[in-house]
Specification:
homodimer; mainly alpha; Farnesyl Diphosphate Synthase; 2 strands; 69% helix
Chain lengths: 302, 302
Protein backbone atom coordinates (compact mmCIF):
# COMPACT_ATOMS: atom_id res chain seq x y z
CA UNK A 1 0.00 0.00 0.00
CA UNK A 2 1.34 3.42 -0.99
CA UNK A 3 1.35 6.09 1.65
CA UNK A 4 2.89 8.89 -0.33
CA UNK A 5 0.29 11.54 0.39
CA UNK A 6 -1.41 12.44 3.63
CA UNK A 7 -4.74 11.26 2.22
CA UNK A 8 -3.30 7.86 1.43
CA UNK A 9 -1.99 7.54 4.96
CA UNK A 10 -5.36 8.53 6.43
CA UNK A 11 -6.98 5.84 4.27
CA UNK A 12 -4.38 3.30 5.27
CA UNK A 13 -4.77 4.04 8.97
CA UNK A 14 -8.56 3.89 8.89
CA UNK A 15 -8.52 0.61 6.94
CA UNK A 16 -6.07 -0.87 9.40
CA UNK A 17 -8.09 0.45 12.32
CA UNK A 18 -11.19 -1.27 10.93
CA UNK A 19 -9.27 -4.57 10.69
CA UNK A 20 -8.18 -4.21 14.32
CA UNK A 21 -11.68 -3.27 15.55
CA UNK A 22 -13.17 -6.28 13.82
CA UNK A 23 -10.51 -8.61 15.26
CA UNK A 24 -10.93 -7.22 18.79
CA UNK A 25 -14.68 -7.67 18.51
CA UNK A 26 -14.14 -11.29 17.49
CA UNK A 27 -11.28 -12.23 19.82
CA UNK A 28 -12.28 -10.56 23.09
CA UNK A 29 -15.00 -12.52 24.92
CA UNK A 30 -18.40 -10.81 24.89
CA UNK A 31 -20.59 -9.49 27.69
CA UNK A 32 -22.74 -12.62 27.55
CA UNK A 33 -19.96 -14.37 29.49
CA UNK A 34 -20.05 -14.51 33.28
CA UNK A 35 -19.32 -12.48 35.27
CA UNK A 36 -20.84 -10.02 32.83
CA UNK A 37 -19.71 -7.02 34.90
CA UNK A 38 -16.06 -7.93 34.26
CA UNK A 39 -16.44 -8.39 30.51
CA UNK A 40 -18.48 -5.18 30.27
CA UNK A 41 -15.72 -3.24 32.03
CA UNK A 42 -12.99 -4.82 29.87
CA UNK A 43 -14.87 -4.06 26.65
CA UNK A 44 -15.95 -0.59 27.77
CA UNK A 45 -12.32 0.53 27.95
CA UNK A 46 -11.15 -1.55 25.01
CA UNK A 47 -13.73 0.01 22.69
CA UNK A 48 -13.49 3.56 24.01
CA UNK A 49 -12.14 4.94 20.74
CA UNK A 50 -8.39 4.47 20.83
CA UNK A 51 -6.14 5.25 17.87
CA UNK A 52 -4.98 1.59 17.77
CA UNK A 53 -1.43 2.79 17.16
CA UNK A 54 0.24 -0.29 18.68
CA UNK A 55 -1.79 -2.90 16.77
CA UNK A 56 -1.40 -0.90 13.54
CA UNK A 57 2.37 -0.80 14.11
CA UNK A 58 2.30 -4.57 14.60
CA UNK A 59 0.51 -5.06 11.27
CA UNK A 60 2.89 -2.63 9.56
CA UNK A 61 5.88 -4.48 11.07
CA UNK A 62 4.51 -7.74 9.66
CA UNK A 63 4.10 -6.13 6.24
CA UNK A 64 7.60 -4.62 6.31
CA UNK A 65 9.01 -8.09 7.00
CA UNK A 66 7.20 -9.45 3.95
CA UNK A 67 4.36 -11.13 5.86
CA UNK A 68 0.59 -10.99 5.72
CA UNK A 69 -0.61 -8.35 8.21
CA UNK A 70 -3.91 -10.17 8.75
CA UNK A 71 -2.01 -13.21 10.05
CA UNK A 72 -0.76 -11.30 13.12
CA UNK A 73 -4.10 -9.81 14.20
CA UNK A 74 -4.34 -11.86 17.43
CA UNK A 75 -0.95 -10.48 18.52
CA UNK A 76 -2.01 -6.97 17.49
CA UNK A 77 -5.10 -7.34 19.69
CA UNK A 78 -2.98 -8.62 22.58
CA UNK A 79 -0.84 -5.48 22.35
CA UNK A 80 -3.98 -3.31 22.47
CA UNK A 81 -5.22 -5.26 25.54
CA UNK A 82 -1.94 -4.50 27.32
CA UNK A 83 -2.13 -0.83 26.32
CA UNK A 84 -5.76 -0.58 27.52
CA UNK A 85 -4.98 -2.27 30.86
CA UNK A 86 -2.18 0.24 31.43
CA UNK A 87 -4.58 3.15 30.77
CA UNK A 88 -7.22 1.74 33.15
CA UNK A 89 -4.69 1.35 35.97
CA UNK A 90 -3.05 4.72 35.16
CA UNK A 91 -6.41 6.51 35.51
CA UNK A 92 -7.15 5.07 38.98
CA UNK A 93 -7.54 7.49 41.92
CA UNK A 94 -4.31 6.14 43.47
CA UNK A 95 -2.45 6.91 40.23
CA UNK A 96 -3.33 9.86 37.94
CA UNK A 97 -6.93 10.09 39.23
CA UNK A 98 -8.48 10.90 35.86
CA UNK A 99 -12.25 11.13 35.45
CA UNK A 100 -12.21 11.33 31.65
CA UNK A 101 -10.30 9.65 28.87
CA UNK A 102 -10.96 10.54 25.25
CA UNK A 103 -13.99 12.51 26.46
CA UNK A 104 -15.59 9.49 28.14
CA UNK A 105 -15.76 8.65 31.87
CA UNK A 106 -12.84 6.42 32.87
CA UNK A 107 -13.38 2.75 33.72
CA UNK A 108 -13.39 3.24 37.50
CA UNK A 109 -15.87 6.14 37.21
CA UNK A 110 -18.33 3.83 35.45
CA UNK A 111 -17.69 0.47 37.13
CA UNK A 112 -16.03 1.38 40.43
CA UNK A 113 -12.42 1.04 41.48
CA UNK A 114 -12.40 -2.65 42.35
CA UNK A 115 -13.87 -3.69 39.01
CA UNK A 116 -11.52 -1.34 37.14
CA UNK A 117 -8.46 -2.86 38.83
CA UNK A 118 -9.70 -6.36 37.98
CA UNK A 119 -10.66 -5.40 34.41
CA UNK A 120 -7.08 -4.21 33.92
CA UNK A 121 -5.72 -7.43 35.42
CA UNK A 122 -8.01 -9.47 33.17
CA UNK A 123 -6.95 -7.60 30.01
CA UNK A 124 -3.27 -8.09 30.82
CA UNK A 125 -3.79 -11.81 31.43
CA UNK A 126 -6.02 -12.19 28.38
CA UNK A 127 -3.25 -10.65 26.25
CA UNK A 128 -0.90 -13.51 27.11
CA UNK A 129 -3.65 -16.08 26.58
CA UNK A 130 -4.31 -14.60 23.12
CA UNK A 131 -0.62 -14.82 22.31
CA UNK A 132 -0.16 -18.35 23.63
CA UNK A 133 -3.34 -20.15 22.61
CA UNK A 134 -2.40 -22.34 19.61
CA UNK A 135 -5.88 -21.80 18.15
CA UNK A 136 -4.80 -18.27 17.31
CA UNK A 137 -2.17 -17.91 14.56
CA UNK A 138 -2.24 -21.73 14.15
CA UNK A 139 0.56 -21.94 11.56
CA UNK A 140 3.01 -19.98 13.72
CA UNK A 141 6.09 -22.03 14.74
CA UNK A 142 5.92 -22.55 18.55
CA UNK A 143 9.47 -21.30 19.07
CA UNK A 144 8.64 -18.00 17.35
CA UNK A 145 5.50 -17.71 19.47
CA UNK A 146 7.48 -18.24 22.64
CA UNK A 147 10.09 -15.66 21.68
CA UNK A 148 7.40 -13.08 20.90
CA UNK A 149 5.66 -13.71 24.24
CA UNK A 150 8.97 -13.25 26.04
CA UNK A 151 9.70 -10.00 24.15
CA UNK A 152 6.25 -8.59 24.89
CA UNK A 153 6.49 -9.67 28.53
CA UNK A 154 9.80 -7.87 28.87
CA UNK A 155 8.43 -4.70 27.23
CA UNK A 156 5.32 -4.65 29.44
CA UNK A 157 6.96 -5.63 32.73
CA UNK A 158 9.19 -4.09 35.40
CA UNK A 159 12.06 -3.50 32.95
CA UNK A 160 9.64 -1.91 30.49
CA UNK A 161 6.29 -0.18 30.81
CA UNK A 162 5.54 -0.86 34.50
CA UNK A 163 9.05 0.23 35.47
CA UNK A 164 8.55 3.44 33.49
CA UNK A 165 5.29 4.12 35.30
CA UNK A 166 7.03 3.82 38.66
CA UNK A 167 9.79 6.16 37.43
CA UNK A 168 7.05 8.62 36.44
CA UNK A 169 5.99 8.80 40.11
CA UNK A 170 9.46 10.01 41.18
CA UNK A 171 9.46 13.50 42.71
CA UNK A 172 9.86 16.29 40.08
CA UNK A 173 13.20 17.46 41.49
CA UNK A 174 14.77 14.09 40.72
CA UNK A 175 13.83 14.26 37.05
CA UNK A 176 14.72 17.62 35.58
CA UNK A 177 17.31 16.05 33.26
CA UNK A 178 16.69 15.09 29.64
CA UNK A 179 18.48 11.80 30.33
CA UNK A 180 15.95 10.94 33.04
CA UNK A 181 13.01 11.86 30.79
CA UNK A 182 14.47 9.73 28.01
CA UNK A 183 15.03 6.74 30.27
CA UNK A 184 11.54 6.99 31.74
CA UNK A 185 9.71 7.38 28.41
CA UNK A 186 11.79 4.68 26.72
CA UNK A 187 10.24 2.34 29.25
CA UNK A 188 6.83 3.88 29.89
CA UNK A 189 5.65 4.24 26.28
CA UNK A 190 8.68 3.43 24.12
CA UNK A 191 9.10 -0.23 25.03
CA UNK A 192 5.57 -1.21 24.00
CA UNK A 193 5.74 0.83 20.77
CA UNK A 194 9.07 -0.75 19.88
CA UNK A 195 7.89 -4.27 20.63
CA UNK A 196 4.71 -3.74 18.60
CA UNK A 197 6.68 -3.22 15.38
CA UNK A 198 9.23 -5.91 16.24
CA UNK A 199 6.62 -8.52 17.20
CA UNK A 200 4.83 -8.06 13.88
CA UNK A 201 8.05 -8.73 12.01
CA UNK A 202 9.13 -11.64 14.24
CA UNK A 203 5.76 -13.34 13.81
CA UNK A 204 6.28 -13.24 10.03
CA UNK A 205 9.77 -14.68 10.19
CA UNK A 206 11.56 -11.38 9.57
CA UNK A 207 15.34 -11.78 9.19
CA UNK A 208 17.69 -10.47 11.91
CA UNK A 209 18.69 -7.38 9.87
CA UNK A 210 15.07 -6.37 9.39
CA UNK A 211 14.26 -6.98 13.06
CA UNK A 212 17.24 -4.87 14.06
CA UNK A 213 16.20 -2.01 11.78
CA UNK A 214 12.61 -2.14 13.02
CA UNK A 215 13.74 -2.24 16.63
CA UNK A 216 15.74 0.95 16.18
CA UNK A 217 12.87 2.52 14.20
CA UNK A 218 10.44 1.61 16.99
CA UNK A 219 12.67 3.00 19.70
CA UNK A 220 12.98 6.32 17.91
CA UNK A 221 9.32 6.79 17.02
CA UNK A 222 8.36 5.74 20.56
CA UNK A 223 10.34 8.64 21.98
CA UNK A 224 9.19 10.99 19.19
CA UNK A 225 5.59 10.05 20.02
CA UNK A 226 6.10 11.10 23.65
CA UNK A 227 7.76 14.39 22.72
CA UNK A 228 4.86 15.09 20.32
CA UNK A 229 2.46 14.40 23.21
CA UNK A 230 4.28 16.85 25.45
CA UNK A 231 4.32 19.50 22.70
CA UNK A 232 0.59 19.03 21.99
CA UNK A 233 -0.16 19.58 25.64
CA UNK A 234 1.39 23.05 25.29
CA UNK A 235 0.32 24.02 21.77
CA UNK A 236 -2.56 21.72 20.83
CA UNK A 237 -6.15 22.68 20.02
CA UNK A 238 -8.32 21.43 22.92
CA UNK A 239 -11.16 20.76 20.45
CA UNK A 240 -9.06 18.47 18.28
CA UNK A 241 -7.37 16.81 21.27
CA UNK A 242 -10.64 15.99 23.02
CA UNK A 243 -9.13 17.20 26.29
CA UNK A 244 -7.82 20.43 27.77
CA UNK A 245 -4.24 21.58 27.21
CA UNK A 246 -1.73 22.75 29.80
CA UNK A 247 -2.59 19.75 32.01
CA UNK A 248 1.02 18.65 32.30
CA UNK A 249 2.10 21.99 33.78
CA UNK A 250 -0.85 22.08 36.19
CA UNK A 251 -0.02 18.56 37.39
CA UNK A 252 3.62 19.54 37.86
CA UNK A 253 4.65 16.96 35.24
CA UNK A 254 8.12 17.34 33.85
CA UNK A 255 7.95 17.50 30.05
CA UNK A 256 10.33 17.95 27.16
CA UNK A 257 9.16 21.55 26.48
CA UNK A 258 9.64 22.33 30.19
CA UNK A 259 13.14 20.87 30.31
CA UNK A 260 14.58 21.83 26.90
CA UNK A 261 12.15 24.43 25.53
CA UNK A 262 9.58 24.16 22.75
CA UNK A 263 11.92 24.73 19.79
CA UNK A 264 14.56 22.27 20.93
CA UNK A 265 11.80 19.72 21.61
CA UNK A 266 10.54 20.11 18.04
CA UNK A 267 14.06 19.70 16.67
CA UNK A 268 14.65 16.62 18.83
CA UNK A 269 11.40 15.08 17.59
CA UNK A 270 12.26 15.81 13.96
CA UNK A 271 15.73 14.29 14.41
CA UNK A 272 14.22 11.14 15.89
CA UNK A 273 11.79 10.80 12.99
CA UNK A 274 14.64 11.38 10.51
CA UNK A 275 16.64 8.68 12.27
CA UNK A 276 13.66 6.32 12.15
CA UNK A 277 13.34 6.87 8.38
CA UNK A 278 17.06 6.21 7.99
CA UNK A 279 16.60 2.95 9.92
CA UNK A 280 14.21 1.82 7.20
CA UNK A 281 16.54 2.64 4.30
CA UNK A 282 17.42 -0.98 3.59
CA UNK A 283 13.76 -2.01 3.38
CA UNK A 284 11.59 -1.97 0.26
CA UNK A 285 8.19 -0.44 -0.45
CA UNK A 286 6.51 -2.78 2.01
CA UNK A 287 7.94 -0.52 4.74
CA UNK A 288 6.08 2.49 3.29
CA UNK A 289 3.32 2.34 5.93
CA UNK A 290 5.98 2.54 8.66
CA UNK A 291 7.48 5.57 6.91
CA UNK A 292 4.06 7.19 6.78
CA UNK A 293 3.39 6.45 10.45
CA UNK A 294 6.70 8.06 11.46
CA UNK A 295 5.72 11.29 9.71
CA UNK A 296 2.18 11.05 11.06
CA UNK A 297 3.49 10.93 14.63
CA UNK A 298 5.35 14.18 14.11
CA UNK A 299 2.48 15.96 12.38
CA UNK A 300 -0.49 14.70 14.34
CA UNK A 301 -2.88 17.22 15.85
CA UNK A 302 -4.44 14.91 18.46
CA UNK B 1 9.93 -39.47 48.52
CA UNK B 2 7.69 -41.24 51.02
CA UNK B 3 5.07 -39.23 52.77
CA UNK B 4 3.47 -41.96 54.84
CA UNK B 5 3.64 -40.20 58.18
CA UNK B 6 2.87 -36.62 59.09
CA UNK B 7 6.54 -36.03 59.94
CA UNK B 8 7.60 -37.20 56.51
CA UNK B 9 5.14 -34.82 54.90
CA UNK B 10 6.37 -31.91 57.03
CA UNK B 11 9.92 -32.72 55.95
CA UNK B 12 8.88 -33.01 52.34
CA UNK B 13 7.04 -29.69 52.40
CA UNK B 14 9.87 -27.82 54.08
CA UNK B 15 12.45 -29.25 51.67
CA UNK B 16 10.27 -28.28 48.71
CA UNK B 17 9.66 -24.85 50.20
CA UNK B 18 13.41 -24.33 50.49
CA UNK B 19 13.84 -25.26 46.80
CA UNK B 20 11.17 -22.73 45.85
CA UNK B 21 12.61 -19.97 48.05
CA UNK B 22 16.02 -20.46 46.53
CA UNK B 23 14.63 -20.39 42.99
CA UNK B 24 12.54 -17.26 43.65
CA UNK B 25 15.60 -15.56 45.10
CA UNK B 26 17.55 -16.44 41.96
CA UNK B 27 14.86 -15.82 39.31
CA UNK B 28 13.17 -12.64 40.55
CA UNK B 29 15.26 -9.53 39.78
CA UNK B 30 16.84 -7.94 42.85
CA UNK B 31 16.41 -4.54 44.44
CA UNK B 32 19.61 -3.31 42.82
CA UNK B 33 17.60 -2.94 39.59
CA UNK B 34 15.93 0.38 38.74
CA UNK B 35 13.42 1.55 39.72
CA UNK B 36 14.43 0.05 43.05
CA UNK B 37 11.10 1.00 44.65
CA UNK B 38 9.25 -1.34 42.29
CA UNK B 39 11.53 -4.31 42.83
CA UNK B 40 11.48 -3.74 46.58
CA UNK B 41 7.67 -3.79 46.59
CA UNK B 42 7.54 -6.91 44.40
CA UNK B 43 10.01 -8.77 46.59
CA UNK B 44 8.48 -7.52 49.84
CA UNK B 45 5.24 -9.32 49.04
CA UNK B 46 6.85 -12.28 47.32
CA UNK B 47 9.01 -13.05 50.36
CA UNK B 48 6.39 -12.33 53.03
CA UNK B 49 6.29 -15.93 54.24
CA UNK B 50 3.78 -17.73 52.03
CA UNK B 51 3.18 -21.48 52.24
CA UNK B 52 4.26 -21.85 48.57
CA UNK B 53 1.39 -24.31 48.04
CA UNK B 54 1.06 -23.62 44.29
CA UNK B 55 4.75 -24.01 43.42
CA UNK B 56 4.98 -27.13 45.61
CA UNK B 57 1.95 -28.58 43.79
CA UNK B 58 3.70 -27.82 40.50
CA UNK B 59 6.81 -29.72 41.62
CA UNK B 60 4.68 -32.59 42.91
CA UNK B 61 2.76 -32.70 39.60
CA UNK B 62 6.08 -32.95 37.76
CA UNK B 63 7.17 -35.78 40.03
CA UNK B 64 3.87 -37.65 39.66
CA UNK B 65 4.30 -37.49 35.87
CA UNK B 66 7.75 -39.05 36.18
CA UNK B 67 9.73 -35.86 35.70
CA UNK B 68 12.43 -34.05 37.65
CA UNK B 69 10.76 -31.53 39.96
CA UNK B 70 13.80 -29.23 39.85
CA UNK B 71 13.36 -28.84 36.10
CA UNK B 72 10.05 -27.01 36.49
CA UNK B 73 11.17 -24.49 39.13
CA UNK B 74 10.83 -21.44 36.83
CA UNK B 75 7.19 -22.34 36.17
CA UNK B 76 6.65 -22.97 39.88
CA UNK B 77 8.01 -19.48 40.59
CA UNK B 78 5.77 -17.98 37.90
CA UNK B 79 2.73 -19.52 39.62
CA UNK B 80 3.82 -17.97 42.92
CA UNK B 81 4.26 -14.57 41.22
CA UNK B 82 0.67 -14.77 39.95
CA UNK B 83 -0.58 -15.81 43.39
CA UNK B 84 1.30 -12.95 45.06
CA UNK B 85 0.04 -10.35 42.57
CA UNK B 86 -3.53 -11.49 43.28
CA UNK B 87 -2.99 -11.06 47.03
CA UNK B 88 -1.51 -7.57 46.60
CA UNK B 89 -4.47 -6.41 44.49
CA UNK B 90 -6.98 -8.20 46.75
CA UNK B 91 -5.66 -6.34 49.79
CA UNK B 92 -6.03 -2.87 48.20
CA UNK B 93 -8.37 -0.34 49.85
CA UNK B 94 -10.75 -0.56 46.85
CA UNK B 95 -10.93 -4.34 47.29
CA UNK B 96 -10.74 -6.09 50.72
CA UNK B 97 -8.88 -3.16 52.34
CA UNK B 98 -6.58 -5.31 54.46
CA UNK B 99 -3.81 -3.76 56.54
CA UNK B 100 -2.15 -7.03 57.46
CA UNK B 101 -1.31 -10.27 55.69
CA UNK B 102 0.42 -13.09 57.52
CA UNK B 103 0.98 -10.65 60.39
CA UNK B 104 2.90 -8.17 58.21
CA UNK B 105 1.67 -4.82 56.81
CA UNK B 106 0.25 -5.29 53.31
CA UNK B 107 2.10 -4.00 50.25
CA UNK B 108 0.07 -0.79 49.92
CA UNK B 109 0.51 0.00 53.62
CA UNK B 110 4.29 -0.08 53.18
CA UNK B 111 4.76 1.30 49.65
CA UNK B 112 1.53 3.21 48.96
CA UNK B 113 -1.38 2.28 46.75
CA UNK B 114 0.08 3.30 43.39
CA UNK B 115 3.25 1.28 43.89
CA UNK B 116 1.26 -1.71 45.17
CA UNK B 117 -0.96 -1.71 42.06
CA UNK B 118 2.12 -1.54 39.84
CA UNK B 119 4.01 -4.17 41.85
CA UNK B 120 1.06 -6.52 41.27
CA UNK B 121 1.04 -5.67 37.57
CA UNK B 122 4.78 -6.27 37.37
CA UNK B 123 4.57 -9.66 39.12
CA UNK B 124 1.80 -10.82 36.79
CA UNK B 125 3.78 -9.74 33.73
CA UNK B 126 7.01 -11.18 35.08
CA UNK B 127 5.26 -14.54 35.53
CA UNK B 128 4.63 -14.79 31.79
CA UNK B 129 8.16 -13.63 31.01
CA UNK B 130 9.53 -16.36 33.29
CA UNK B 131 7.38 -18.95 31.52
CA UNK B 132 8.23 -17.78 28.00
CA UNK B 133 11.90 -16.88 28.19
CA UNK B 134 13.77 -19.75 26.49
CA UNK B 135 16.68 -19.26 28.89
CA UNK B 136 14.50 -20.82 31.57
CA UNK B 137 13.73 -24.54 31.20
CA UNK B 138 15.94 -24.56 28.05
CA UNK B 139 15.26 -28.17 27.07
CA UNK B 140 11.48 -27.74 27.14
CA UNK B 141 9.84 -28.29 23.71
CA UNK B 142 8.42 -24.90 22.57
CA UNK B 143 4.98 -26.37 21.86
CA UNK B 144 4.72 -27.68 25.42
CA UNK B 145 5.82 -24.29 26.73
CA UNK B 146 3.16 -22.53 24.67
CA UNK B 147 0.41 -24.88 25.86
CA UNK B 148 1.41 -24.38 29.49
CA UNK B 149 1.39 -20.59 29.09
CA UNK B 150 -2.08 -20.77 27.55
CA UNK B 151 -3.36 -23.01 30.38
CA UNK B 152 -1.96 -20.74 33.07
CA UNK B 153 -3.31 -17.64 31.28
CA UNK B 154 -6.77 -19.19 31.18
CA UNK B 155 -6.61 -20.14 34.87
CA UNK B 156 -5.46 -16.67 35.95
CA UNK B 157 -7.70 -14.61 33.65
CA UNK B 158 -11.36 -13.57 33.35
CA UNK B 159 -12.55 -17.19 33.00
CA UNK B 160 -10.47 -18.19 36.02
CA UNK B 161 -9.09 -16.32 39.02
CA UNK B 162 -9.96 -12.73 38.04
CA UNK B 163 -13.50 -13.77 37.10
CA UNK B 164 -13.85 -15.47 40.49
CA UNK B 165 -12.70 -12.31 42.23
CA UNK B 166 -15.39 -10.29 40.48
CA UNK B 167 -17.99 -12.94 41.42
CA UNK B 168 -16.80 -12.57 45.02
CA UNK B 169 -17.88 -8.91 44.92
CA UNK B 170 -21.49 -9.85 44.10
CA UNK B 171 -24.01 -8.83 46.78
CA UNK B 172 -24.46 -11.51 49.51
CA UNK B 173 -28.13 -12.11 48.64
CA UNK B 174 -27.15 -13.28 45.16
CA UNK B 175 -24.83 -15.96 46.51
CA UNK B 176 -26.48 -17.94 49.27
CA UNK B 177 -26.45 -21.13 47.18
CA UNK B 178 -23.80 -23.83 47.40
CA UNK B 179 -23.73 -23.88 43.58
CA UNK B 180 -22.75 -20.21 43.49
CA UNK B 181 -20.05 -20.71 46.14
CA UNK B 182 -18.69 -23.69 44.20
CA UNK B 183 -18.64 -21.79 40.89
CA UNK B 184 -16.96 -18.78 42.48
CA UNK B 185 -14.28 -20.71 44.35
CA UNK B 186 -13.57 -23.03 41.40
CA UNK B 187 -12.47 -19.88 39.62
CA UNK B 188 -11.12 -17.71 42.43
CA UNK B 189 -8.75 -20.23 44.05
CA UNK B 190 -9.48 -23.56 42.36
CA UNK B 191 -8.34 -22.72 38.83
CA UNK B 192 -4.82 -21.72 39.88
CA UNK B 193 -4.45 -24.72 42.22
CA UNK B 194 -5.61 -27.07 39.48
CA UNK B 195 -3.31 -25.56 36.86
CA UNK B 196 -0.35 -25.69 39.25
CA UNK B 197 -0.50 -29.50 39.42
CA UNK B 198 -1.36 -29.86 35.73
CA UNK B 199 1.40 -27.50 34.53
CA UNK B 200 4.02 -29.47 36.46
CA UNK B 201 2.94 -32.67 34.74
CA UNK B 202 2.60 -31.08 31.28
CA UNK B 203 6.08 -29.60 31.52
CA UNK B 204 7.47 -33.10 32.15
CA UNK B 205 5.62 -34.64 29.22
CA UNK B 206 2.94 -36.32 31.31
CA UNK B 207 0.63 -38.56 29.26
CA UNK B 208 -3.03 -37.55 28.71
CA UNK B 209 -4.36 -40.04 31.29
CA UNK B 210 -2.05 -38.69 33.99
CA UNK B 211 -2.90 -35.08 33.08
CA UNK B 212 -6.60 -35.88 33.27
CA UNK B 213 -6.23 -37.55 36.68
CA UNK B 214 -4.18 -34.64 38.02
CA UNK B 215 -6.65 -32.11 36.64
CA UNK B 216 -9.50 -33.77 38.52
CA UNK B 217 -7.32 -34.11 41.63
CA UNK B 218 -6.43 -30.42 41.42
CA UNK B 219 -10.02 -29.33 41.01
CA UNK B 220 -11.10 -31.31 44.07
CA UNK B 221 -8.29 -30.23 46.38
CA UNK B 222 -8.76 -26.64 45.21
CA UNK B 223 -12.31 -26.64 46.47
CA UNK B 224 -11.37 -28.64 49.60
CA UNK B 225 -8.72 -26.01 50.32
CA UNK B 226 -11.33 -23.25 50.25
CA UNK B 227 -13.77 -25.15 52.47
CA UNK B 228 -10.90 -25.77 54.92
CA UNK B 229 -10.20 -22.03 54.87
CA UNK B 230 -13.82 -21.22 55.66
CA UNK B 231 -13.91 -23.80 58.47
CA UNK B 232 -10.65 -22.47 59.97
CA UNK B 233 -12.13 -18.99 60.04
CA UNK B 234 -14.85 -20.35 62.36
CA UNK B 235 -12.92 -22.89 64.44
CA UNK B 236 -9.23 -22.04 64.03
CA UNK B 237 -6.77 -20.96 66.69
CA UNK B 238 -5.96 -17.27 66.06
CA UNK B 239 -2.42 -17.88 67.34
CA UNK B 240 -1.69 -20.64 64.82
CA UNK B 241 -3.49 -18.83 62.00
CA UNK B 242 -1.54 -15.59 62.46
CA UNK B 243 -4.80 -13.66 62.12
CA UNK B 244 -8.09 -13.30 63.95
CA UNK B 245 -10.97 -15.71 63.35
CA UNK B 246 -14.61 -14.87 62.62
CA UNK B 247 -13.49 -12.31 60.02
CA UNK B 248 -15.66 -13.81 57.29
CA UNK B 249 -18.84 -13.35 59.35
CA UNK B 250 -17.92 -9.81 60.32
CA UNK B 251 -17.28 -8.92 56.66
CA UNK B 252 -20.62 -10.45 55.67
CA UNK B 253 -18.79 -13.03 53.52
CA UNK B 254 -20.81 -16.04 52.51
CA UNK B 255 -18.96 -19.20 53.51
CA UNK B 256 -19.54 -22.96 53.37
CA UNK B 257 -20.22 -23.22 57.14
CA UNK B 258 -22.70 -20.34 56.83
CA UNK B 259 -24.53 -21.92 53.89
CA UNK B 260 -24.43 -25.63 54.73
CA UNK B 261 -23.38 -25.79 58.40
CA UNK B 262 -20.07 -26.83 59.94
CA UNK B 263 -20.62 -30.58 59.95
CA UNK B 264 -21.82 -30.76 56.35
CA UNK B 265 -18.86 -28.57 55.32
CA UNK B 266 -16.46 -31.00 57.01
CA UNK B 267 -18.11 -33.94 55.24
CA UNK B 268 -18.00 -32.16 51.88
CA UNK B 269 -14.29 -31.45 52.37
CA UNK B 270 -13.56 -35.07 53.34
CA UNK B 271 -15.48 -36.31 50.30
CA UNK B 272 -13.50 -34.04 48.01
CA UNK B 273 -10.20 -35.25 49.47
CA UNK B 274 -11.37 -38.88 49.12
CA UNK B 275 -12.25 -38.18 45.50
CA UNK B 276 -8.86 -36.58 44.91
CA UNK B 277 -7.12 -39.68 46.33
CA UNK B 278 -9.26 -41.87 44.07
CA UNK B 279 -8.18 -39.74 41.11
CA UNK B 280 -4.59 -40.75 41.84
CA UNK B 281 -5.30 -44.50 42.04
CA UNK B 282 -3.75 -45.26 38.65
CA UNK B 283 -0.49 -43.49 39.57
CA UNK B 284 2.52 -45.06 41.27
CA UNK B 285 4.51 -44.04 44.34
CA UNK B 286 5.75 -40.92 42.63
CA UNK B 287 2.28 -39.47 43.32
CA UNK B 288 2.75 -40.00 47.09
CA UNK B 289 3.54 -36.32 47.71
CA UNK B 290 0.26 -35.35 46.07
CA UNK B 291 -1.55 -37.85 48.30
CA UNK B 292 0.13 -36.35 51.34
CA UNK B 293 -0.75 -32.81 50.28
CA UNK B 294 -4.43 -33.74 49.86
CA UNK B 295 -4.55 -34.98 53.45
CA UNK B 296 -2.52 -32.01 54.66
CA UNK B 297 -5.09 -29.61 53.19
CA UNK B 298 -7.84 -31.25 55.21
CA UNK B 299 -5.88 -31.40 58.44
CA UNK B 300 -4.03 -28.11 58.36
CA UNK B 301 -4.34 -25.81 61.34
CA UNK B 302 -3.27 -22.59 59.60
Amino acid sequence: MKTGSEDNLENYLSQRRALVEEALERLIPGEENAPSLLFRAMRYSLFAGGKRLRPILCLAGAEAAGGDPASVLPAACALECIHTYSLIHDDLPAMDDDDLRRGKPTCHKVFGEATAILAGDALLTQAFTLLADPRHMPSLPPLTRVKVIAEIGKAAGPFGMVGGQVMDMAPPEGRGEVSFLDAMHRRKTGAMIRVSVVAGAMLCGGDPMTIKALSSYGERIGLAFQIADDILDVTGDPGELGKGTGGDRRLGKVTYPAVMGLEASRRRMADLVDGALTDLEGLDERAHPLRGIAKFIMERKS
